[in-house]
Design goal:
The complex is a heterodimer of chains A (about 375) and B (about 550). Chain A has about 375 residues and is α/β, with parallel strands linked by helices. In chain A, strands 1, 2, 3, 4, 5, 6, 7, 8, 9, 10 and 11 form an 11-stranded mixed beta sheet that branches. The longest helix of chain A is centred in the middle third of the chain and has 28 residues. Chain A starts with a helix and ends with a helix. The N terminus of chain A is likely disordered. Chain B is mostly helical. The longest helix of chain B is centred in the N-terminal third of the chain and has 34 residues. Chain B contains 22 helices and no strands. The two termini of chain B are about 35 Å apart. Classes of the chains: A alpha/beta (about 375), B mainly alpha (about 550). The interface between A and B is large, with 89 and 82 residues.
């Protein structure tokens, strides 16, 4: 029932293949006990070497964050074409997943990792966990999405963190949608906005970064002081903000008609509607300088058991088939412009006119300081 | 010899799956340079934020525990002393909050007592108020309230279970000597209950001390516990030395509390003539009926109403009136996802893990309890604190420890029941041990005199008398696994989803259909938890009811 032996097998191969890994294990004083426990737990395949027939699919392990998704059919096509069997492991939210991959550097958990975003790019590159690979398909991908000249990380998708508003709520109250970020500190918008904590949430951090970009390092805290006085609500994560407090997302239980979310949330509101609506109840609001561009990358892990197949998988992720699957599976935009966008995306997931594109190195260098200053201000 | 080998088993388990990964991550975090680590530590101690966090963590856990006991003890008494229709179902339902993810419970609470909640709307209409009278959102009160909601079952079930086995003869003797009911309660019942009451309080305290989701989701950012701070340091800033230092502080506190507990516990235990069958009667007078009614109403309002609100929403979310659409959607692969699983698969996966958790934690817990009950055993001194430490350990830290230390077991599905067992073990021991300590030695001696061999003695004396305690601990172990405690520890396999995983995945994208599916899956989680706990507690030994 628990059998997913190919993963075990891949680990076994890694055991024989990578000498550092094996050395480390032998040195570990508890390795023997661990093995006994594993055997006790009924994992007989550990004892029996895997049969290496040509017909056996090659195991490939992809590690990612909790939001990774893919169509059954698209994944099956890759597996058929390359006689592979893909095991996906999800390691937590974006930050936790990356940290786990970094910690397992000496004995990689997987062959490749998808889900480093531009806010964590510097940390990922500094940890030196990825092998360079310049996929031929990168030629199709716009240059401004590529952020690592050594091609250790390749861009797969991008999205925008921005304000979403409850269209009907604003129409009914006769309040105009905010046109500038400064409007949010105006008494008209008192108690209307819910945002996420940048210390625990990635859209929260993205929104904080846009305010730093827009108001400057000297001015962003003043803006947030204004927001605080205007009764902004802060939640720890996106789910709580959207489903508990946002009027649309909570099905009417929440009391906040403005939320920090994604520019692709409106099409999701139609795809996952229950009343057959053809237009979303939410709209994107783009006051100047208020949208943050997030890019997600994939890379082959150093010490991968199947580096060749992992590179094939990166080609596959950048190719049109997978890229066209991205919008409705993960609700972000495909990096490859040749991919087909669903009509809902064209209609309702507008691209903001002037997104903030932040230097990843500046984010990594200042994150703690900026967030800490923000936390101190907001908790005073 | 045989016995020593047996007692070594729980220690071996904890060493491999707890101490080893913990030490491994601490070593990695502090790196080679101890001086650097010391510098980090002294910097942390000087920061004013550190003391604020430590103070808040401690006092909120203390107050939450006191409140939980205050609410739980009378209810435990009602459950122990009275028999009433639907008691079994009620007891099973009480365990349900335990398995519910905070992310779905929080909106249910807000739907009831939030600014726009039912209670406020009702009060506003009744009293003609303009502003909602109850303003609990993002206050400490809401945190305390939800801590009581989550943990009251621990007090009701463990203390109630022990209470129902107490012989009524002592209290009856006191009554015959003219003691008032109050006096009887304070001088007879409370001292007899003390071991179990303190054990339950300790578990509640540790849960609140390491509280994470409740604080984050309901507290807003003004409140941070050590656990929240460890997460921020480890994940957001990747400052592992600081995270490791904070984890050690957390462990140190856990250890201190446990040392205090162990001393008190040893002094309080006494041998009792435990009863085989629960001493519970139908309420005899209208006053007793009133007490039972009041207790049940309070339980319903406090513990069950958020759950009912949640279940109701799973059928009514959206504008279209009552609907089954969210349940139907659970069974359809709407987005042709490779990780789709029908609800029955998720239920089955969860149950397999939960049964495996029972298979690991019950035998180990019982063995550990016997080792601890022989207070002079040298195993006891090591085992007692070791058993409880996992409860007071940061899940983020231990999760990273698994990544560093567990080798090929890291991605194995078998690690899930193992990690659940780390949390379940203290529950098994803390529920089972008070009953075991109270077991009358003379019964065993009598059995031996009559020629029973040890196994026979255990089967005829220990097993029937301790069954109730064992079943309650089994219920907790099962629930802990179903609720995926410490899920952050593990690497998830999206192709093998459990019920909580389905809930989290549904909540990762916008849209009412996703929200509705999360509510529907939560309702299935509640129902299957309640049903399985009912079944577990129906279990009876084959040698029959009578002595």
């Amino acid at each position: 029932m628990f059998a997913q032996w190919h993963v075990w097998n891949s680990h076994l191969r890694r055991l024989h293949g990578a000498r550092t890994w094996f050395y480390r294990l032998c040195r570990g004083p508890l390795w023997g006990a661990l093995l006994v426990a594993a055997l006790l737990a009924g994992c007989q395949p550990l004892a029996a070497p895997p049969p290496s027939e040509t017909a056996t699919p090659t195991p490939l392990v992809l590690a990612s964050h909790d939001s990774f998704n893919i169509s059954e059919e698209v994944l099956a096509r890759f597996e058929r074409e390359h006689n592979a069997s893909v095991q996906v492991l999800t390691l937590g939210d974006t930050g936790t997943a990356l940290n786990k991959v970094i910690l397992s550097k000496d004995a990689p958990l997987a062959d490749l990792f998808f889900g480093v975003d531009n806010t964590f790019l510097s940390r990922a590159l500094a940890a030196d966990i990825f092998e360079p690979y310049e996929s031929p398909l990168l030629a199709q991908i716009p240059d401004d999405l590529e952020m690592d000249p050594q091609h250790r990380l390749s861009p797969v998708d991008y999205g925008f963190v921005n304000l979403n508003a409850d269209r009907e709520w604003f129409a009914a109250k006769g309040i105009p949608l905010p046109e500038r970020l400064e409007d949010l500190t105006d008494p008209t918008y008192r108690g209307l906005l819910v945002v996420q904590n940048p210390a625990t949430s990635s859209p929260g951090l993205a929104f904080l970064l846009t305010t730093i970009d827009y108001f400057g390092e000297d001015g962003y805290l003043d803006f947030w002081r204004g927001l605080k006085e205007n009764d902004v609500l802060v939640t720890d994560g996106w789910s709580e903000a959207y489903f508990s407090h946002f009027t649309v997302g909570s099905g009417g239980a929440g009391d906040r008609p403005l939320v920090v979310s994604y520019s692709t949330s409106p099409p999701a509101d139609v795809v996952y509607a229950t009343d057959g609506r053809t237009e979303p109840a939410t709209v994107n609001v783009f006051p100047p300088g208020s949208a943050f561009r997030q890019v997600e990358f994939v890379g082959v892990l150093k010490g991968a058991a199947q580096p060749e197949l992992a590179r094939k998988f990166i080609d596959f992720m950048l190719d049109v088939d997978f890229q066209s699957d991205i919008p409705l599976q993960m609700f972000v935009y495909p990096a490859n412009p040749n991919a087909t966008l669903p009509e809902l995306f064209v209609k309702f997931a507008q691209v903001p006119p002037d997104p903030v594109i932040f230097d990843p190195a500046a984010i990594e260098a200042n994150r703690e300081r900026w967030v800490q200053a923000w936390v101190e201000l907001m908790t005073q | 010899m045989m016995q020593a080998a047996l007692y070594a088993l729980p220690i071996l388990f904890l060493t491999i799956f707890y101490l080893y990964p913990l030490l491994a991550i601490l070593r990695v975090s502090f790196g080679a340079s101890l001086t650097e680590a010391m510098e980090q530590a002294s910097a942390a101690l000087r920061a004013p934020g550190f003391w604020r966090v430590l103070w808040f963590t401690t006092w909120q856990a203390t107050v939450s525990t006191l409140l939980t006991v205050l609410v739980g003890l009378p209810l435990a008494g009602v459950f122990a002393r009275f028999d009433f229709p639907g008691k079994g179902v009620m007891a099973a339902l009480l365990t349900v909050p335990f398995v519910m993810p905070t992310v779905v419970v929080a909106p249910a609470f807000l739907a009831l007592i939030g600014r726009n909640g039912l209670l406020n709307a009702w009060l506003q209409r009744l009293l003609h108020l303009d502003a909602p009278p109850i303003q609990l959102e993002q206050t400490i009160w809401l945190i305390l309230l939800v801590h009581v909601f989550y943990n009251v079952a621990i007090v009701i079930r463990t203390v109630g279970g022990f209470w129902s086995a107490l012989p009524p003869t002592l209290a009856e003797a006191a009554a015959a000597l003219g003691a008032s009911p109050q006096r009887r309660f304070w001088t007879v019942t409370v001292p007899l209950l003390a071991p179990s009451l303190i054990a339950a309080s300790l578990l509640v305290f540790l849960f609140c001390f390491t509280s994470f989701g409740v604080i984050l989701i309901l507290g807003g950012l003004r409140f941070a516990t050590l656990e929240v701070e460890i997460y921020r340091q480890a994940v957001s800033y990747f400052n592992l030395p600081m995270a490791a230092f904070l984890s050690i502080v957390q462990l140190f506190f856990t250890f201190t509390v446990m040392a205090l507990y162990t001393r008190v516990q040893a002094r309080l235990s006494r041998t009792l003539r435990l009863r085989r069958r629960a001493f519970a009667r139908r309420p005899a007078s209208w006053r007793q009926w009133a007490v039972v009614g009041l207790a049940l109403t309070a339980t319903f309002i406090g513990v069950l109403s958020p759950l009912v609100a949640l279940a109701v929403r799973s059928f009514t979310l959206g504008d279209g009136g009552p609907t089954l659409v969210y349940y139907q959607a659970l069974g359809e692969n709407l987005r042709q996802s490779a990780f789709f699983a029908p609800p029955i698969t998720a239920v089955r996966n969860s149950f397999v893990y939960a049964l495996a958790t029972l298979a690991i934690s019950l035998p180990l817990g019982v063995i550990a309890s016997y080792a601890l009950a022989q207070s002079r055993s040298r195993w006891a001194a090591i085992l007692d604190p070791l058993l409880l430490l996992p409860l007071g350990t940061s899940a983020v830290t231990l999760g990273f420890g698994y990544i560093v230390a567990m080798g090929p077991l890291r991605a194995s599905p078998w690690l899930a029941p193992v990690a659940h067992s780390l949390i379940a073990l203290p529950f098994v021991v803390r529920t089972f041990l008070p009953a075991l300590r109270a077991l009358d030695r003379r019964l065993r001696e009598a059995a031996s005199t009559l020629g029973a061999d040890p196994l026979q003695r255990w089967w005829t004396i220990d097993a029937p008398l301790l069954l109730r305690a064992l079943l309650i601990s089994a219920a907790f172990a099962f629930a802990i696994s179903l609720g995926e405690f410490g899920a952050t520890l593990l690497i998830a396999r999206p192709d093998r989803p459990t019920m909580p995983l389905v809930i989290y995945r549904a909540l990762s994208q916008p849209g009412l259909m996703n929200y509705g599916q999360a509510l529907a899956m939560s309702t299935i989680l509640m129902a299957s938890t309640a049903l399985s706990i009912l079944l577990i507690e129906r279990f009876r030994l084959p040698q029959g009811e009578e002595f």
